[in-house]
Specification:
With 242 residues, this protein is α/β, with parallel strands linked by helices. The chain has a single domain (16-229), classed as Metal-dependent hydrolases (TIM Barrel), CATH 3.20.20. The protein contains seven helices and eight strands, in the order αβαβααβββαβαβαβ. The protein has helices spanning 16-25, 52-61, 76-91, 93-98, 153-162, 179-188, 210-222, and strands at 37-38, 66-68, 107-109, 111-118, 121-128, 166-169, 193-197, 226-229. Strands 4-5-6-7-8 form a five-stranded mixed beta sheet. Strands 1-2-3 form a three-stranded parallel beta sheet, with no helix packed on it. β6, α6 (179-188) and β7 (193-197) form a beta-alpha-beta unit. α2 (52-61) crosses α3 and α6 packs parallel to α7 (210-222). The longest helix has 16 residues, at 76-91. It is globular.
Length: 242
Amino acid sequence: MAEPSANSGSRYPTSQAAQELKNIFQQITDQSCPHYYNFHMHTHCSDGKLSPGDLMEQAINLQLKGFAITDHHTIRGYQQACRWLENWRWHHPSTWSAKQSQFKLPRLWCGIEITANLLEVDVHILGYAFNPQHEAFRGYVQGGAPSGDQRQAQAVIQAIQSAGGIAVLAHPVRYRRSPEELIPAAAALGIDGVETYYAYDHPAEWRPTPEKTERVEKLANAYELLSTCGTDSHGLTLTRRI
């Protein structure tokens, strides 16, 4: 079998959930976050301040359509949020059943953020809609950053994709090498997307940083990569980073 080209996407079959999420990513714009979609946020299960339950309450109050919890090297926050959501459904039967046509709970996607080495610098790679029980992924959900060969970007991307998920380069203008260097290198390794819409200057009201967003948009289009958005929330509100 021929090897895929740099922009042909994953060589691994994606899960149904991942394919559904890819369809959403293809519709993401600079207006999607933070009131419609948010695919980068943290809980106190890693380095965030919100509990998974508090995060879920905010997601519901914001009436998000879809989002992902992307704690560092763990899915405990996601798992707790899933349990919270089931409990919420149980205690709100009238809202959930009688008003289904008017009220829709936001879609929660499995997510993670993994430290990786790309072009000899540390970067963060976001994984979405993967099977955390997959054998290839076990070393990445232990609560600590990977080391050795597991830390190489190629290994991280392959682990996410072999587990049926989507691999995305997080905030590509935050590293010691430029996005003009990193994004082509990540594309050559078969990454699926980049976090195009990101607030690098941490404004009080979240909005993607214009000049940096334009650079990433151009590269994402050139390498036929998906674009994602996220607040990278670490504080007590989902509508900003801190």
